[in-house]
Amino acid sequence: MPDNRFEVQQKQRRRLFKSLVLNGLGICLAIFLLVPPGLIFRWTQADLSFLRLPLIGYFLLRLGSDCCLIYITSRAGYSAVFLLRGAATAFLIFWIFKNAILFTRLSAFAGSLKIFSGLSEIAVFAVLFIFGSTLARICGLYKSHTAEKYVGPLGISLGQFIMGYSLWQSGISFSVYWRPFADIGLVLMAGLTAVSLSTLGLLGEKSRNALTADLCAWLRSSPVGKFFLGAALAAYIIFLRPLIFEHLPYAFLFEWVLLCMVAWWVYSKIVDLLGNRYTAVTLDTDWHKHIQQVDDLIDEDFEKIGLLQRDFVELGNRRGLLNYLRQVLRNNKLTDDQNNNVLRNLIEYSDNKIPWYNFWIWRKRKMNQNIENRKTALQCTINNMSELAHPVYKKKRRTI
Predict the structure, then answer these.
(1) Taking the model in full, what pTM does it have?
(2) Is 354 exposed, middle or buried (0-12, 13-18, 19+ CB in 10 A)?
(3) Are 263 and 152 in the same domain?
(4) DSSP 296
(5) Are residues 228 and 320 in the same domain?
(6) Which secondary structure element, helix H or strand E, spans residue 254, and what is its range?
């Protein structure tokens, strides 16, 4: 154990050193390139020194967030990371948008005065959008904890609604230059409001009432589909409906018929669900009392597992998770061979190497692919442990 702890500390120090080098390099480049006698001034003959302060502040806040990620291993630490990263992005975006009109000093943007003046008007709403996104990410840390079961879903839902509201207000600001921008912003807000309502399904997903739990599970499922549903409904009301009613004299009749058909389809689906899932045919037969025997795995420190899983999925650090799961299995009287068999997906997992020449979107794509692979390895491990705790689960999975 001391050796493992020493290796973890060494890895944390290397990560901090890497962050210090990259952010320090960014600060040096911002100072070197953006001073009036710098390279950019020589190439463009334009003073862009107003970007120097926001870039330096951005890199400093990013460095602070990396320090929190390394030295604070708790939900509060991850909250600080998200808060500092959101503050860094908001500071940079606000400063650039507020001074966007100064970009017209460049000859390439000399004719785009209206666009950059519009960006300066939506600087506050851009910060509001980042605030909503940051709030949703922070509250996402609490969505699976029973002690704060209302904090996570309500915070995520509020953050998503704030994001939609900021897009709507930004569209209104840009509607001065093109009127449909306001309607497009309203469509985006409707989609994000639908996602916000979908997130509220987390409040009752684990309800003891089976009907409530199923309804909330349906509401929570496919948030992307809910977004497109809300956006499509808003687009129909704003754009298509006025055109249809203008050119078709009996459009209201067709609309009511379509609404009744949809209502009948929803009603029939609900009736089928209630009939198939919540009722059963009564059979006259002999019966005897059934005694259910369930052997659960013992876990005395359940809260820690969420942070370890997040550390593995988002950062690729599996050592802490493996050590924790091994100890849990040992507490349940499993041998080392059985432990290795249960945890084989986690033990054998390795990230796909990212070539040094991959930049920007290609590097991001590789990183997202690694995250998905980690999720798959973790899910396989969870399935193995579920089969170990409940052997019936294994048979059920095979019949799906």
Answers:
(1) 0.63
(2) middle
(3) yes
(4) P
(5) no
(6) helix 251-277
